[in-house]
Amino acid sequence: PPLRFDVLTLFPGLFEGFLSESILKRAIRRGLIGVNLWDIRRWALDKHRSVDDTPFGGGPGMLMMAPPVVSAVEAVQASFGDRPGRLIAMTPAGRRLDQAFVEELAREPRIVLLCGRYEGFDQRIFDILRPEPLSIGDYVLSGGEVPAMAVIDAVMRLVPGVLGDDQSAIDESFGPDGGLEYPQYTRPRSYRGLDVPEVLLSGDHAAIARWRRQHRRTAGPSR
Ligand code: SAM
């Protein structure tokens, strides 16, 4: 496939529904996107298959240990043979994901996503692997899997051929025309006393384009 994701996680099962429905399912079936899941626990060293331990210096929770995570990432990247791919670690402390970065990632052939759990990663994972730290927003989730799905979902939509109509990624919010989306309507024409704006039913494409430009949302409630 033109774009391949390799996801390293302690919970590969979380991705099952995500990969087997809708647009992503079709993109994978059509060979446009590849997603490989790697269970970090495979690289655990002891007989208990441990991947986490308590933090030195005290404090709550557990940390992902360096040896299994570093070995896992190195083994996965070595399996590519050629280039190591773009290595990204999900962390709330990372650079905040936005559409500009999504567009940059969509031009990569291979993206490796490292998902954290517990209270995050032993620092040496960053020191040794030098991943790009990436956050999906200023809030804390319990693992990097949902953030990794957000990255895959946003990026795969920009891969040529994935969306039914190649315009759909261009016409929308944060697209090259810079505007946020305009209000849209489908049937029924009238619902609970709210009617679809007359101009949208007019068939006058210039008038519709003008109306849409004028009604582009430049500031939503929480922006
Ligand atoms: N102790 C960490 C802190 O205070 O920043 C939070 C760890 S969080 C409970 C566990 C894992 O979830 C993180 O290692 C990361 O992989 C993932 N995660 C949580 N929130 C995230 C976010 N907003 N963006 C990206 N990854 C996130």
Strand order of the largest sheet: 2-1-6-5-7
Our estimate of the beta-strand percent is 15-25%
Q: How many β-strand runs?
A: 9
Structural class by sheet pairing and helices: alpha/beta
- The CATH architecture term of the largest domain is 3-Layer(aba) Sandwich
Compressed to H and E, one letter per element, the order equals EHHEEEHEHEHEHEEH
Q: Which CATH class of the largest domain applies here?
A: Alpha Beta
What does this 3D model show about the protein?
28% of the residues lie in helices and 19% in strands. It is of the alpha/beta class. The strands form 3 sheets. Strands 2-1-6-5-7 form a 5-stranded parallel beta sheet, sandwiched between helices. Strands 3-4 form a two-stranded antiparallel ribbon. α4 (99-105) links the parallel β5 (86-96) and β6. The two termini are 37 Å apart. The structure holds S-adenosylmethionine (SAM).
Helix and strand topology:
Blueprint lengths: L2 E7 L6 H4 L2 H8 L3 E7 L12 E2 L9 E2 L1 H14 L6 E11 L2 H7 L4 E5 L8 H7 L2 E4 L9 H12 L33 E2 L2 E2 L9 H10 L9
Parallel strand pairs: 1-2, 1-6, 5-6, 5-7
Antiparallel strand pairs: 3-4, 8-9
Helix pairs in contact: 3-5
Keywords:
single chain, 223 residues, alpha/beta, Alpha/beta knot, Trp Operon Repressor, Chain A, 5-stranded parallel beta sheet, two-stranded antiparallel sheet, 7 helices, 9 strands, 28% helix, elongated, binds S-adenosylmethionine
